[in-house]
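User: quick one, sequence for these tokens?
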């Protein structure tokens, strides 16, 4: 399925509490091959309706995806907001990350 594959970095975030009970984010990176496409017009419109800013769709071999929260591609970070499994492949729908660090989405 990967006609024009690129290398992306999947990013998972774990929180470790410091001595004051404040969660400190720690990132783990893994490189995998993916196909990258734009999201469809209907995905973009539906995302805007629910407060998401859809940007790119990444297709990876399903066993390569381990529920990471973000992707780094071409020096830019994207948050995975939705997935769709299609046989051996999984589509990762993303929005661009702006401002706050990745771990700041967690409420622990």
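Assistant:
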């Amino acid at each position: 399925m990967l006609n024009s594959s690129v290398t992306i970095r999947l990013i998972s975030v774990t929180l470790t509490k410091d001595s004051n009970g404040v969660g400190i984010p720690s990132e783990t990176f893994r490189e995998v091959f993916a196909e990258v496409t734009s999201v469809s017009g209907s995905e973009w419109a539906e995302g805007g309706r629910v407060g998401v800013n859809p940007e790119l769709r990444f297709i990876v071999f399903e066993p390569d995806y381990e529920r990471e929260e973000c992707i780094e591609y071409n020096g830019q970070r994207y948050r995975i907001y939705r997935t769709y499994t299609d046989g051996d492949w999984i589509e990762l729908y993303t929005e661009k990350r702006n401002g706050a660090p990745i771990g700041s989405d967690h409420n622990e």
